Predict the 3D structure of the following.
Amino acid sequence: GEAGPKQYAKIGRHSVLATTLNAFQDCPLIEGIQVVIHEDDTDLYHAALSRIEKLEPAVIGGATRQSSVLSGLAAIPEATHVLIHDAARPFVRTDLIETICTALQTNAAVVPAVAVTDSLRRVEDGKSSAVSRQGLFSVQTPQGFRSADIQDAHDRAEKVGRNDFTDDASLAEWAGLDVTLVSGDPANMKLTTPADMASASASKVPDVRVGHGYDTHQLVAGDGVILCGVTIPHNRRLDGHSDADVGLHALTDALLATIGAGDIGDHFPPTDPQWRGAKSDQFLAHAAELVRGRGGTITHMDVTLLCESPKIGPHRQAMREMMAKIVGIDVDRVSVKATTNERVGFIGREEGIVALATATVVLP
Ligand code: MG
C-alpha cells in the first residue's frame, strides 16, 4: 500500500479523507465541516481534497486525539451542535449522519453502535476463556454532542490530566452526559490495517470485465434454426459442426473473454467428433462454470442477432429465459436484440446469420 497516514491514501479515485468529507457535504443538516490535521500533513491534506463547499480551513491538531478534538472545537465557537468523526471511516453514509443529527435534537450525546457479532474470548495469564457478547456493542463515529457540553467535558478532562479516553463518548460519559446509542452501520468500518485499505480499494474499484463475442454460420436448405437455445421453424437451417447456434456461440466467447480463457474453439475443437451436432447449451454452461471457478459473478449478458428472417421478436422472451437458465442468472440480466441487415451483404441475401454478444462479469 501507500506510505503515510491512511486518511490521505486513495481508495479508488478519491482519498479516504475526501470520501469521508463528501458524505458530510451531502447531508443537508450539516452546515460546516472542520478538519483537524497534523502539522506535517498540510501538503498531503491539500493534495487529498477536491472542492468541498462546506469545508472550513483546516486547523492543526495536538499530540493526542483529545487535544486535536479541542483544537477543532475551538475553531468553530459558533456551532450549537457538533458531530465528531474519524477521518479513517470513509464509508459513513449520509443517512447515518442524518440519524445522529435528528437524535441530537432530543439527546445530549448520540453515538452509533453495532451489536458485536464475533464470539469473544478474554485472555488472562496466557489462558483464554469465553466472554458472552450479549449486550455488547462496537462504537463508531460520528458521535454527536451539543457543542457546549462536549467543549466543557474536554476542558474538564484536560484540567485533571485525563487523556486516555478512546473516543468522545467515553469522555462525555465520564463528564456525566447520558450517551444515547443509535443503530450504526456495519459498513462504516475504520480503516486500520493495510488489509483494510486493500479491501476498501477493492470495494471502490470493482474488477468489472466486459467480454465481447462474434459468430456467424451459413444458412443452408433445412427446416429450422436454433438461435439462443430456441428452435424456430424456418425454411433453412444453420450449418455447422455443432447445432450452429450463433447466439450461444457468440455469448460463450464473450463469457470466456471476461477471464481471458481463449475462445470456444479452444475448449470445444470443431475437429473433435464428440462435438458433432452437439447442443450449444453445454458450451455456454461450461464457460459460465469457468467464470465462476475464478470467483466471477455474471451480472449481465446481451446478444444481438443480425438476420433477415426468421422473425426474432416472438421468440425473444423464450431466448432470454433459456440463456438465463443455462447460465443460472436472473432473466432480467439477459438481453436479446435483433436487427435485419437492410438486405445488404451476405446477411441481407440470407446466406448466413451473425450474432454479437457481450457478457459482464465482476471478479473478486
Ligand atoms: Mg459457431
The pocket of magnesium ion is lined by residues 215, 217, 240, 246, 249 (CB under 6 Å). The longest strand covers residues 207-221.
